[in-house]
Specification:
The complex is a heterodimer. Chain A contains seven helices and 15 strands. By secondary structure, chain A is an alpha/beta fold. Chain A has two domains: about 150 residues, Response regulator (Rossmann fold), CATH 3.40.50; about 100 residues, OB fold (Dihydrolipoamide Acetyltransferase, E2P) (Beta Barrel), CATH 2.40.50. Chain A has a five-stranded parallel sheet, with helices on both faces. In chain A, helix 2 packs parallel to helix 3 and helix 4 runs antiparallel to helix 6. Chain A starts with a strand and ends in an 11-residue tail after the last strand. Chain B is of the alpha+beta class. Chain B is elongated and about 105 Å long. The chains are: A alpha/beta, B alpha+beta. Chains A and B meet through helix 1 of A and helix 6 and helix 8 of B.
């Protein structure tokens, strides 16, 4: 079986350079796609199911980390999860988090020796690869990365009241009344017991301003108030369904966050 | 260590500190009193020690009054306006100290003479209204001269202290600004990505690699120089912006389109070095890099009346989407601070949504044409 790889890197020269270097070091590797932004990386990967993904961390659209997060959530159960290699120019925090868990990470400029070592490691991993092992390992790695203090999430002020404008009226929603937040395109749905509001803010901006003890991220697009969760039901696919106290709808917690519901 | 720490003004144990203070305050008065005593005793052939006693009493009384005036005046000034920069210098200004000194000279002269009479048990106080063999004008002039010298001494000392404090503050803030400028311009992400591109180009296209390396060299040299020097010609400013954008164009490929427009008439106008750099960098980092399809950066200059108008426009993701990041705000603050330091209220930086339907942001810097920075 020839291993198949996807490369996501927004700078064209670097994209080409990595492809050329890989061809030299690993002739039987087949690069099935080289894309320049996060959205396309996610779509390509989900469609074509590569064995390896080289993901640049800073990319337009979705960042490399966000692509990995989305892949972990949407990857079809039963399929072998790709080995992920992150590429970054200078994200020292991510690198620290990586040291413990990584399949591998590369810093730019890529150096020939370092890339050769990476190829070695990937080959070994592919050879010994067994499905039940790959995904949990990837999930652990991702969790460590997402919890690492990113350079841009430096202690933001906690949000106490949310302002949601509708026409000329601005509704003020105390943070304690919010049951969950859900990402919807460029907006966020803010759901309380009685009603819901739309605010123009991304989940990425919101997260550092929430108290992580009170609000849990359970999916890449959902943050729930912990006190509002009534029960959690585990499924075979690894996903978890949550029922809420004040709302009839159910929420899904992805595999990446299923560890929050241990049922001890 | 000197045997006379008080005279030498060296560090002394805490309990002697007040003595040092007293010596510092009194040494001027003592010196002038000594000179006056020597002068008078030679001129009128009076016994030196007696003259000295009078001279010291008068001199120290006058100095006491001057000091009282300085402390009272400064305290009053501080209470009226605590933010007054002169309030801390113990110099309340000539408007207060001028009349006070004349009063202090007259009162100090008579007060000091009476004190000397009491101390020596003699009666040598000159009555200005009575008859005396010595010209009263000379005595009063001596006393006034004494007063004015002492006051002038305090005035210069206060001014020196204020100047010194201001110089130190300015130096500190300039150093900090330079450091921040350097840090922001040598941003590691930019540097390593550029080097990564260079590394690929060396193998793929050596000629282009050389061009890119040259651009990087001028960029680095300008960055290091600009954090030290003040201003350069607008043509140089645009050349440095062009270097930076050329590096970015290699990195971003077809996602970046650059337009630079500098009218010939404005080429030689001096501008603060690398003033536009943070604005161009914001356009790249916060507006175009996050946009999947990329876009255009336009840098321009024009003259509007007495103003030089520099503009950086992009077709990026727009201000509403970038507002969250504080990296861009840092760059803007830096430009605003430099403008405020160099031109005060006569220069400005505005950031707004770009006109037209292409979206993006427009940063505009306005500088007074009349004065060079």
């Amino acid at each position: 079986m020839t291993p198949r790889a996807l490369i996501a890197e927004d700078e064209p020269l670097l994209r080409q350079g990595l492809q050329d270097d890989l061809r030299g070091l690993w002739p039987e590797l087949q690069v099935i796609g080289a894309v320049g932004d996060g959205e396309r990386a996610l779509n390509e990967a989900l469609q074509r199911r590569p064995d390896l993904c080289f993901l640049d961390i800073r990319m337009p659209g979705l960042s490399g980390l966000e692509v990995a997060q989305a892949l972990a959530e949407d990857w079809p159960p039963g399929e072998p999860f790709p080995l992920l290699v992150f590429v970054t120019a200078y994200d020292q925090y991510a690198l620290q988090a990586f040291d413990a868990q990584a399949v591998d990470y590369l810093v730019k400029p890529l150096q020939a020796e370092r890339l050769a070592a990476c190829v070695q490691r990937l080959r070994a991993r592919l050879a010994e690869r067994a499905l039940p092992d790959a995904l949990p390992r990837a999930l652990d790695q991702l969790r460590a990365l997402l919890e690492a203090p990113g350079a841009d999430s430096a202690a933001a002020e906690r949000l106490e009241v949310i302002q949601a404008g509708v026409g000329s009226v601005v509704h003020l929603v105390p943070i304690d009344e919010v049951i969950y937040f859900e990402a919807a395109d460029k907006y966020l749905r803010v759901v309380t017991a009685e009603r819901e509001h739309l605010i123009r803010m991304s989940l990425r901006e919101l997260l550092p301003r929430l108290d992580p003890q009170r609000f849990w991220q359970v999916h890449r697009g959902t943050v729930v108030r912990a006190r509002s969760i009534a029960s959690a039901v585990r499924h075979e696919s690894g996903k978890v369904t949550l029922t809420l106290r004040e709302r009839p709808e159910r929420l899904t917690a992805s595999r990446l966050y299923a560890h929050l519901f241990k049922g001890q | 260590m000197s045997a006379w720490p008080l005279l030498a003004g060296e560090a002394a144990p805490g309990r002697w500190r007040w003595l040092i203070w007293l010596w510092r305050e009194l040494r001027v008065g003592l010196a002038i009193s000594l000179m006056a005593a020597a002068f008078i005793s030679t001129m009128f052939r009076d016994p030196f020690l007696r003259t000295l006693a009078y001279s010291l009493c008068i001199g120290l009384s006058i100095q006491f009054l001057i000091e009282a005036g300085r402390y009272l005046g400064s305290a009053w000034r501080r209470r009226r306006d605590p933010a007054d920069p002169a309030a801390g210098s113990l110099w309340p200004g000539w408007a207060w100290m001028g009349p006070w000194s004349v009063g202090a000279a007259v009162v100090g002269y008579f007060g000091g003479s009476l004190l000397a009479d009491l101390l020596t048990g003699e009666h040598h106080t000159r009555n200005p209204l009575g008859s005396d063999q010595r010209p009263l004008s000379l005595i009063l002039m001596l006393s006034l001269g004494f007063t004015l010298s002492a006051v002038y001494f305090f005035y210069s000392r206060g001014r020196l202290a204020t100047l010194q404090a201001a110089t130190e503050a300015a130096q500190r803030s300039a150093t900090e600004a330079q450091l921040r400028l350097l840090q922001s311009q040598l941003e590691p992400h930019m540097l390593f990505n550029t080097l990564a591109n260079l590394r690929v180009l060396i193998g793929a296209d050596p000629a282009r690699a050389q061009t890119m390396l040259d651009r990087l060299i001028t960029f680095l040299r300008a960055t290091l120089a600009a954090s030290r020097s003040g201003s350069h010609a607008l043509a140089d400013e645009f050349a440095r912006v062009d270097d930076y954008l050329a590096l970015m164009a290699v990195r971003m490929g077809p996602r970046l389109v650059v337009r630079i427009d500098l009218p010939d008439a404005l080429r030689e106008w001096p501008v603060p070095a690398l003033l536009l750099q943070p604005l161009v960098e914001n356009s790249i980092r916060h507006a175009l890099e996050p946009k999947v399809e990329g876009g255009r950066v336009e840098v321009g200059a024009r003259r509007e009346g007495d103003e030089l108008v520099l503009s950086v426009r992009d077709t990026g993701i727009g201000l509403a989407a970038t507002a969250a990041g504080d990296g861009s705000r840092f760059g803007l603050r830096q430009v605003r601070e430099r403008l405020a330091t160099l031109y005060g209220a006569r220069a400005s930086l505005t950031l707004q949504d770009a006109p037209g339907d292409e979206g993006g942001a427009l940063a505009t810097v306005r500088l007074p044409l009349a004065s060079a920075p």
